[in-house]
Design goal:
90% helix; 0% strand; 205 residues; mainly alpha; elongated; Multidrug efflux transporter AcrB transmembrane fold
Amino acid sequence: MWRRASFRRRNRAGRNFSLFAAPRARAIESRNCSTKNFRRRSSASSVTVRFEFAFALAAIIALLHDVILTIGAFALFGRELSLIIVGAVLTIAGYSINDTIVVFDRIREGMRTTNGGSLQFIMNRAINETLGRTILTGGTTVLSTLALYFLGGPVLHDFAFTILVGILVGTYSSIFVASPIVLWWSRWKGKKHIESQPETALAVR
C-alpha cells in the first residue's frame, strides 16, 4: 500500500514536471529566436553604418547561407533540433559575420589606399592577405570542435557537429560568397548608371 502511494506521488511529480517543462522550453525557445533575430538585425545595421549597402547585403546573404546550410546538414543526418542546437546556430552566426567583416575591412582599406586599381583586383588582394588568418582561425576552431566531438561524450555530439559544419561553411562563404556578391552588386550598379546616361543626355538636349 505504501509503495503504491509512493509511486503515485512520484508519478504526479513527474507529470507536473513535464507539464511545467514544456511551456518553459517553448518560452526559452521563443526568447532564443527573438535574440537571434535581434542579432541579425543589429549585425546588418552595424555593417550598413560602417561600410556600404552592398557590403551589408552581402553579409546578410552570407549569414543566411551559413545558417541554412548548417541546419540542412543537421536535418540531412537525421539529428534532433534542440535548444543546444539553437545556441550553436547563434554561435555560427556570430562567427560568420565576424569573419566576413574582417575581409570587408581589408577590402575597404584597399579601396582607400589603392589608386587606379579595379575593385576585382582590390578584392583579390584583400582575400589573399586575409586568407592565412582565415585558415588559421578556422583550422584552430575545427580542431577544438573535433576534440569536443570525440572526447566530449554523446551529450555534446550534436552541438559539436553543428559548430563543425557551421565553421566550415562560414569560412567558405566569407571568401567565395560574400565578396563576389559585393563585386556583382557594384558591377550591376555601374552598368545601370552607364545605361541611364544616354537618356539623361537626350533629356538635356
